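Hi team,

Filling in the usual template for the complex we talked about on Friday. All components are listed, including any nucleic acid strands or ligand strings, so the model treats them as one assembly.

SUBMITTER: L.P.
PURPOSE: interface mapping
COMPONENTS: two
RESIDUES: 955
SEQUENCES:
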Amino acid sequence: MNTTATNIAARLETIIGATRVDGSSESCTRFAVDGVVPSAITRPSSSAEVVEIVRFAKSEKLAVIPCGNGTKLGIGMPPARYDIALEMTGLNQIAYYDPGDLTLSVDAGMNLTELAQALGKQKQFVPLAVPFFDECTVGGAIASNIGSTLRPRYGTARDFLLGAEFVNGAGTFTKSGGRVVKNVTGYDLHKLLIGSLGTLGAITRLNFRTFPLPEAYGHLVSAFSSVEDVVRFQAMVAKSPLAPSSFDILGPEAAQIVAEFKDNRDSALPSWFTHGAWHVCVGFEGAEAVLRRYSSELVQYAQKCGASPYHLLKKSDEKSLRDGLRELVKSLSSPGSAATIFRINVFPCFPRDVTNLRTLAQRFSIPCCIFANSSGPLYFALAPHDLEDKTIGSLAHIASGIFEYAGAHNGSASILFCPVELKQQVNIWGYPRNDAHLMRRVKNAFDPQNIFVPGRLVAAG
Amino acid sequence: MGRRLCNLLAEGATQKTLPRDVIRGLQNILSASMVLHRSEDLLLYEYDGSVEKGRPGAVVFPSTTQDVSRVVRLAAQHDIPIIGRGAGTGLSGGALARTGGIMIVFARMNRILELDLENQRAVVQPGVVNYELTRAVEHAGLYFAPDPSSWKSCTIGGNVLENAGGPHTLAYGVTSNHVTALELVLPDGEICRVGSRHGDSSGYDLAGLFVGSEGTLALVTEITVKLLRKPESVNTMLAIFDRVDDASETVTEITARAITPAACEMLDGWTLQAVEDFIHAGFPLDSAAVLLIELEGLGEVVAAQVAAVEEVCGDHHARGVRVARDEQERELLWKGRKNAFGALGRIAPSNYVLDGVIPRSKIPQALRRIQEIGERYSFKIGNIFHAGDGNLHPIVLFDPRDEGQYQRAIEASAEIIRYCVEIGGALTGEHGVGMEKSELMPLLFSDDDFELMRRIHDAFNPRSALNPGKIFPLNKGCGEITPRAQAAVRAVPL
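RESULT (copied from the run log):
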């Protein structure tokens, strides 16, 4: 039977109840992804309801997009089909938390801020310092694998995700991993969910290792006149015994954006940044004696590498800086804008030839901005003034240049956010991965009928 | 998977020798000296670190990925299973030929292919011995973090497929946290790469899937790993307790206070005496338990942690806390821990070394329950384990010649593992499922969980050509073969 758009919502209502389904065109438009509008929004309140929705979608051959608060739905190629939005924020409880064991099991739809508050009471946290932090759900942070500024010390989700529960494309509730910090029982399927963008299933619950909140923080902001000095400073810190918790490298334009981060109005933060200079913001943590050691040693390295000026931040400004750095991607990617943000993974993590990227943008007169997290990707953001065909053509040209650059350096590059017009011209995932055919096998095993976000992760089908 | 595995298991029981043309084919691909097929030559490859047994029909020693691929293609043509093997130190029967077949031993693929010190990466062949990699990079102040007790003999390929741990995984994570890329040979002989040297890429984390897949999805022929920088300061402490409860509560308190040692190991009861008699590490013979705690990092961090650990030990009635004065004393303490299992052979004909994992807040109650189970079954059960991770290794001493004792030991061990699961733990923290625990998997996983794992298995290894009979309970893949009555835990020969 062919299920028409109008009766999808009605039929879902009979399955999970009218209060959990919204078929109004206004709501559906709000959940559009790259202009593709679903026929119904579902808001399950339990994993059993998620199973029901997925089974319905499977039997009717409908496409489902799981989402949290929708802050990162723009990541990926436009969906090939999209019938049902599976809005997971109704699953929002902490299912289990053993502070003494530093382990946690939390529903995917819980907001990161609420989770931070709950764990904060026990002086603990999960090191997901990711953009859109105030709106983002735990499930969205994992499914998007969006970068955390705390990565240099705490690693990526792969390092602290212990297990997961999810509903796969066959409509069955499944789990992987566990709630203990060390576990080799069965395949690590939960690792596949990290960065899967919803294409393997709907995550219902995630198990994490938690960490103690540091006693205190310290930050050094140093300005450098050249990229070469930044690279020297980075290498010096890498070879030292210091293990900073964050290490953000900001091109002149990125530094400006952090300095002007809207929440920073009341702080003295802007005064720490020097117009036109490259900046490195190093975050560190620990007891007072540890902070003193970091401060003195980092200042020494910065001086040796020609940093001028450099500032050890006052306590009152630290939060503003951390928020500004964490939200840099968000600051650059307001919805509907033409902003195009590349994520480039090459070694060395922060290459000397970043100036080539700037030259590339200048050739097309498009303002650009570069920033990086020392052990993570390099971000290259372009902010074109319009979406004219010519501009999109220029962006496409730049994209192919960057994909080529990353390939030539044994790395990879993709576009994190960009206008849909560019997606119509360019595969935002860059050069096809060598293992794309293996990714398809994984996708088929999880989601044999391709009901979860078809088309978003091109290689997966 | 199902029908095919049934056939393999049925054949495996009877057919041990391979057809002559297969042996000739292998000799053509490699050379005659790189192919073992006489039964006396194969004996050694029947065993690993467990007492599971399974004799391959042939053992081959390829030198290149292409050789591996050719061998796999030949095996596929003849429908013969393939089993990969490193040094054979595994503890769950992961590298045994359960159904016969061709065993690929990676001993000759033992080269470090590249050291990228600037970016802290190494590219190695699977046969490189774990410790050799650290030795090769320590001049640059770097090391490879995973350090299973067998680190001086086990291979990195084996570490990868079993997702090996070790004492220092408490602070630095298990093998999967240190692998960024793999070169694989699939069951049809295809060579492919997953992951990247950098470690980040868009799409699925396939390297994360293959690490710990126990050789059931693909063979690994090249590995890119992260190298860590050696800490500035290392401090090794031995805390001595008169009551096991005090020691285990100390571990729970250290975790709860969020002090993260690099390692936190516990030895209790008769195990201490056995180890001390053999190794003379300085463990006090009259104590009930000791904790071996290592703190690493910046000098300032370590100094604060030493003080905090000493305080916690004092609060829990430690009789004394000794800090290793120099590298020699530190090495001696670690020698006591890393060679502990070998030392136990002196006091009983055989033993079971279990590998369960539990929430760390539940260590005291778990040790009490293990003691109680031991008493009920009339066994002396000791513990030598990674306390900081909640990774238990209870050891059951028994005499395998006494059939009644053997059965009781198996039952007691299964009860302990079941208890681990009951209190929120898992079946295995680092030894793997292999043949040893496949029948216990339903304690943790539902039929739906198995169905998805089976689909992943079949996506890469549809005919069970690679390492058949591992991880999955036999009755989940093969209804016609009754699993051995209690394959739950097996004896370790000493």
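MY TAKE: Residues 1-213+432-461 of chain A form a domain with the Uridine Diphospho-n-acetylenolpyruvylglucosamine Reductase; domain 3 fold (CATH 3.30.465.10). Chain A touches chain B through 83 residues (CB under 8 Å).

Thanks, L.
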